Task: structure prediction
Amino acid sequence: MPQINIGFIGLSKSGWASTALAPPLLRNDKYALKAVSTTSKESAEASAANYSKLSGYEVKPYHGRTDQIANDPDVGLVAVAVNVRLHKETLTPVLEAGKDFFVEWPAGKNTAETIEFAKTAKAKGLRSIVGLQGWQAPAIKKVQEIIASGKIGKVLSSSVISMAPRESLLWGPVTNEKYSYIVDPSAGATMLDIVIGQQLGPITHVLGDFKSVSATSTILYPTSTLVGSDGQPTGETVSNKAPDHVAFSGILRDSGAFVNVIWRGGYKSSPGRQQFIWEIDGEEGSIRVTEDGVAASYIHLHDPKVYLNGELVEFEKSMYGNIGAAWNEFAKGKGKGVYPTIEDAVKLRQLLDAIQLSGETGKRVEL
Result:
């Protein structure tokens, strides 16, 4: 497999792309970072200089419209890691240029955008990878292995209890002013869109797709105080317009298993408060995946413990991390490797839409 040349949109000297997405690429000889694109000339040049130094070869800077980096003949894959509100205007030129792409979850601010990306990618025969990093989590792989081994028998049901803690300054009574847009459902960054989606991605990857869902949701923190980068209140408040508590149950399409999920947002990580429990009950035994640490429910970022029939299961952690492992899987080539694609993102967005609709109407929704 020849080396994959990457152009990275949204890769500045700080932020998620620079701290999480790019480092595994720079350590992977299957990839070469050829260009970066940011909003301004100054930030693009600073980023290019930084990554030229880190990589040991020249990285080209682009800024403004993303059609420039998309049409660079030296770039074969374009990675998009920008604010979700900008996914469409950022990714569309990449698709039009016929380039393979990575896009961070939730791959568009709504399902219509995600479907549009998927249709264009299919029509042009493009490969895609979506930032649902939990697919590669060692705990998720171990759970898959246990189920496949038959040690717990046929899966009959599964229950999940999760939390988005107050300390994250998101989806609760206190919000980081930098991310104040999350209170607006139209921005595509609600608790349901982001972290519930990030968790359901690997869970459905393991257990299978839902046939139907029935949900209840509510807002227990209608007002949120904005805080600055120093954690101090700015004096402003905003109205939370999306649910901070979501519960739903459903039936899986292929196995018929019953699944129950509860998410709550905004609670303090006080001693003894369980942040994440996922139980899978089979005819012959059970699996429990759990962790107490702050934001432990974000399984795309953290490594929870796995228990089989009450006994702790040891498993090897990935030397590449979840993100690096995903890049490795994509690099195996077309038709090879296990990683989430834009088609998987569409299915997940449709599931989230069904949960939202059921929560709003009080009716069971078929998928």
Summary: The mean pLDDT is 96. The longest helix spans residues 342-361. The chain has two domains: 4-104, 137-318+341-366.
